[in-house]
Each structure stands twice: as structure tokens, then as C-alpha cells.
Target: Putative FMNH2-dependent dimethyl sulfone monooxygenase
Amino acid sequence: MSTDSIADQIKFAYWVPNVSGGLVTSTIEQRTDWGYDYNIKLAQTAENNGFEYALSQVRYEASYGAEYQHESTSFSLALLLATQRLKVIAAVHPGLWHPAVLAKLGATADHLSKGRFAINVVSGWFKDEFTHLGEPWLEHDERYRRSGEFLEVIRKIWTEDNVDYRGDFYRIHDFTLKPKPLNTPERPNPELFQGGNSTAARNNAGRFADWYFSNGKDFDGVTEQIDDLRAVAQAHNRSVKFGLNGFIIARDTEKEARDTLREIVEKANRPAVEGFRDAVQQAGNSTGDKKGMWADSTFEDLVQYNDGFKTQLIGTPEQIAERIVAYKRLGVDLILGGFLHFQEEIEYFGEKVLPLVRELEASQTPAAVL
Model:
């Protein structure tokens, strides 16, 4: 078990609800909105309540309860310009972006935001979004091979001049980007996140990314992923940080929190969840070792479409804080939180949960947990 990051404070991010339907596919009331005004206020609330990052989702075609959606990179820039400290991560799909074009956009966004832009490379699970646009649909491991090249190319363009690259998916010929992003020794390029659960995703993150983003996992699942990720990174003389998705239901009593979870699942939009399940479970099952995203997800898991219930951040502030710090001891560097009612629940988290996390961190020195 790794404790490499135990001396650092765990960081927090939130899912930007730039997609309609909220973060659960359920008819339960969700006091949230996918629009601009709501999200600007939410971003400002989040950065004033201890959140360092926000992740803008990416969907291109209306589907599975996400009927409306704002494009991730442009929406991320809007949030960056409305905040002072928040780092905003835009999710992007290789195959629908050229890495040099995204590198240009990212450099501009980084200057406009004074160094707060980041990207999350997601290799694509929704076949129709590619085929309906006339783009080729690659098999799972080929999508991740393309994502690996994508990450490698964009970092080179952000940090080097006269870039030449000869890959299977991208050819770059004597290309120089200026201005470069606001690169510093502490952050040599805008942060690169690799999303996914498969072995191919971990290999990509270990070799090419700054961060690995995992779907929701329990302690055993996190331990397995961190061990694999760090073995790959160490083999390439690198270090990679680990982010974990979790749907957070913090209430004054455990009963309230559990009742909320029960209501979410009972009111699931069954046709939408089943349609999503049919579309995504081929992704994990198409891998050789069956370790891809959603490969072992139940119907109940998929009501939160990134397996956020599996992380079990559900209960009182004390229970959630203790579980977060337990994940930190396993090597988790960041919690990516989803919420039912974003505005008030992010405020509640900042007031009730985060101070307990910091108290627990302060009381547990590295020597105490080894």
C-alpha cells in the first residue's frame, strides 16, 4: 500500500453540471441546472468552499437523460473567467479533436485564466457519437492507443519547439506553438488527466498523464488501481496522481443520507439507465481482462453513471470525512464529487465535511499511518 502523498492535503473537485439531467438518472428532484448563470454562481461557491478543481463534462449528442449539454472547452473557459482560483478541467475526446488544435485552444485559455486550465482525456464509450458524425469507431484498446499518442503529442507541443512526431494516429511535422501555456517548474504544462478504469487507461496515465481519474471504487478497487498505476509510472521514471469519483450524500443523520440514496434508486429512469448500460458495458467487456469501465456495474450503480455510489461517501459529515481520509491513506490525491442539489450541498460540504477532513489529516502524521 502506497502512502506517497500522505503528507499532502487531499484535494476536491466537483462535476460541472453543464449537461441536463443532473448527476443521477432518476426522477427524484435535483435542484441543479445545466445553464450558464447557475454554473457561474456554482463555480464561485465551490472555490469559496474549498474546491480546487471543477470538471466540465463532455457529451456531443442528446442521449440517456442528457438531452441538452454545453460544450466542455468553451464552458470551462467561461467558468475560468468568472473565478479567481478554481482550476477547470475540460473533458475531451481524441478522434473528435486534433491534439495541436486543442493545444492552441488550451494555451490561450491558460493565459486568459492565469494558469488554471486543464484537460481530461476520455477515450470515448458512446459509439453513436462517432458513427453519427461519420468518424471511425475504434476498438477499446485502439482508442486508448490513440489517447496515449494524443497525450504525448499535446505535452510535446506545450513544452517543445519544432515538434516532430510519427505515430500510428498522429503525424506532426516541425510544429511550434507560440505562445506556450504559462508553464512553470511547479507546473511544467497544463495538467493532463487520463480518465478510465481499464488496464489500458492505467498504462496511458502511468506513461503520459499527470493524473489518473477513476470511476467510483471501494477500498479494494482503489488499492488495485493505485498499485497498477504506480507500477507503470515507476517503470517510466514518472509519478502520477490519483483522482477518484464519488457521489456525495452528506446529511445530518445517516438515516437521512441512506433514505436519499434509496429514493434516488427507487425513482431511477429505468429506460434511460438500461439504454446507457447497453451502450457502455461493451466498453469494459471488450477488454481482454474485463477490467474496463462499467464492466462490473449493476443497474443500481449505473443510476449514477460514473459508479459514484460505489465510493460510499454517504452518511454524516463525520462518516464521510473518515472515509475520505481512509481513501487518502490508500494513495488517493483528489475526490471528484457529484451532488444531488449542487449549490446547497457544496456549501454544506465546505461548512460541515471539509473542516473534519482537515482535522483528521492534521492528526495523522505519516509516521502514525505507516
Notes: Confidence is low (pLDDT under 50) at residues 1-6. The first helix runs from residue 36 to 47. Residues 11-369 form a domain with the TIM Barrel fold (CATH 3.20.20.30).
